[in-house]
Amino acid sequence: MAKAIWNNTILAESDQTIVIEGNHYFPPSAVKWDYFVKSETHTTCPWKGEASYYTIVVNGQSNPDAAWYYPNPKEAARQIKDYVAFWRGVRVEA
Q1: Which CATH number is 58's domain given?
Q2: pTM of the predicted model as reported, rounded to 2 decimal places
């Protein structure tokens, strides 16, 4: 079971994450969406495609662009479509 935790709050929890390049990608059904706000930030990975980001808000504190996902991944990364990964201080315990 993998858990994503920030500000003493579990943001996502699943035993069906997909690990790519050391990052756990959580299925959308495992994410606690109340803590997520869409961001305007986008980045591009040469083999996964364009990533979109979420800002995480817990107990009035914001962690900008601390989660990302691929809404329209390239073919090589199709298995992580809409799955969410974390960084910027979000602890992932596996």
Answers
A1: 2.170.150.40
A2: 0.96
